[in-house]
Recover the amino acids of this structure.
C-alpha cells in the first residue's frame, strides 16, 4: 500500500460479530436459556437499507455473519493494509436499548469473555473494547473494574442510543471506572430510535434509512455538548472520549457556537473554567469513518485546519460495513506528517500501544 508504506496503521473501529449461540458458554442462567430460545434480541432502529449493512465480499463462505471469522478479517483488512492494531468494537453495545438492565449487563459480560477467549489470541493485531450497557452504570463500572488490566482491552464502548444525554450524572460511574482503569471511552451509534432510546433526530422519527443515517451526527453533537456542559472532563480530568462513526465536519461550527454561548451563559456551568472547545481538544477524538466527501476536497481540508484534525482524528475502516473506508483511498490531501498522526500516532498514544 504505497500511500502508507512508511508506517503501519491502527484501525479504531472493526466490527467483529458472532452468532448468538457463541455467547451461551459464557452466560449464566436464566440468561443462557433466554438466548438459546430466542436469541439476544437487540432493539435496533428498524430502518431498512437498500444496500444492506455489510460488504458482500465480507460474508464468509460457510454462511456465517460478516465479521465473525477472524481469518477473513486478517485476509481482507489486516494483511493488505499493514494494520498493526485492530480495535474490535463488536455490536453488543446496542443492548443498551433493551429494557432489562440485568440482562443487558449479562450479555455484555458474556461477550467480553467470549472476545477475550476466542478473538484476542487469533492474531497479534487484535485488540478489543470492553462493551458495557448504560442501563445500569454501577453494573457497567463493575464490568470495567473486572477487566481492567487485561492487556487485550484498550477502551470501553457504549452506545450513543440512550434515554438522555450521556454527560448527565446518572452515567458518571461508568466514567469513573474508565478513569480508574486508564481506558478511553468510545461512543458508537447503531440503534438510535430503537427500544428505550430517544428519537434518532431532534425533530423526531424520520421515514427512511437515508435520513436516519445522515442525521446520526445530531446525536453526537448533543452528547458532546452534554459531556462538556455537565463537567465530565472537569470531574474526570484524565478521561479521553472517542466519538466513533459519527462524522467529523460538524465539530468546528458546533464548537464556535458553544464557545460563543458560553461567554454569555458561563454562570450556568460554573465548574467550567476554560472555553468549551479547549476541553474538547484536550479530551476528545473522532474516528474518520464515515468521512464527509465534499465535491471540492479543499473544503474538507479547510475544516480540518479549523478543528486541529491532525491531533484529534483516528483512522477507522468500519469493516465489514457497506461504507467501509479503505486507508489508501481517504485523506489523500493531508500532509505526510498529519497523515501519520491520523493513521497511526494518535491511536498509538491513546491506546498506549508500544
Amino acid at each position: 500500500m504505497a500511500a502508507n508504506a512508511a508506517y503501519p496503521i491502527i484501525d479504531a473501529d472493526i466490527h467483529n460479530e458472532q452468532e448468538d449461540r457463541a455467547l451461551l458458554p459464557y452466560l449464566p442462567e436464566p440468561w443462557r436459556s433466554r438466548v438459546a430460545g430466542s436469541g439476544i434480541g437487540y432493539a435496533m432502529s428498524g430502518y431498512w437499507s437498500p444496500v444492506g449493512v455489510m460488504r458482500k465480499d465480507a460474508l464468509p463462505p460457510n454462511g456465517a455473519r460478516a465479521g465473525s471469522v477472524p481469518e477473513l478479517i486478517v485476509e481482507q483488512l489486516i494483511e493488505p493494509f499493514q494494520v498493526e492494531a485492530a480495535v474490535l468494537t463488536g455490536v453488543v453495545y446496542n443492548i443498551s436499548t433493551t429494557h432489562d438492565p440485568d440482562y443487558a449487563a449479562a450479555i455484555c459480560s458474556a461477550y467480553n469473555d467470549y472476545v477475550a477467549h476466542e478473538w484476542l489470541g487469533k492474531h497479534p493485531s487484535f485488540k478489543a473494547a470492553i462493551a458495557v450497557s448504560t442501563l445500569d452504570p454501577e453494573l457497567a463500572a463493575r464490568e470495567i473494574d473486572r477487566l481492567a488490566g487485561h492487556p487485550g482491552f484498550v477502551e470501553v464502548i457504549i452506545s450513543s442510543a440512550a434515554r438522555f444525554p450521556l454527560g448527565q450524572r446518572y452515567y458518571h460511574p461508568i466514567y469513573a471506572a474508565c478513569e480508574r482503569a486508564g481506558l478511553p471511552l468510545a461512543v458508537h451509534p447503531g440503534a438510535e430510535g430503537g427500544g428505550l432510546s430517544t428519537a434518532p433526530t431532534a425533530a423526531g422519527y424520520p421515514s427512511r434509512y437515508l435520513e436516519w443515517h445522515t442525521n446520526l451526527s445530531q446525536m453526537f453533537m448533543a452528547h458532546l455538548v452534554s459531556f462538556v456542559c455537565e463537567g465530565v472532563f472537569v470531574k474526570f480530568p484524565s478521561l479521553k472520549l472517542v466519538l466513533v462513526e459519527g462524522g467529523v465536519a460538524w465539530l468546528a461550527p458546533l464548537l464556535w457556537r458553544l464557545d460563543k454561548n458560553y461567554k454569555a451563559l458561563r454562570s450556568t456551568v460554573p465548574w467550567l473554567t476554560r472555553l468549551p472547545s479547549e476541553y474538547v481538544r484536550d479530551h476528545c477524538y473522532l474516528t474518520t469513518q464515515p468521512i464527509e466527501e465534499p465535491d471540492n476536497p479543499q473544503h474538507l481540508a479547510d475544516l480540518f485546519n479549523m478543528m486541529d484534525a491532525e491531533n484529534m482524528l483516528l483512522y477507522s475502516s468500519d469493516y465489514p460495513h457497506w461504507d467501509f473506508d479503505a486507508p489508501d483511498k481517504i485523506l489523500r490531501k493531508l500532509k505526510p506528517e498529519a497523515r501519520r498522526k491520523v493513521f497511526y500516532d494518535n491511536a498509538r498514544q491513546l491506546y498506549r500501544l508500544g
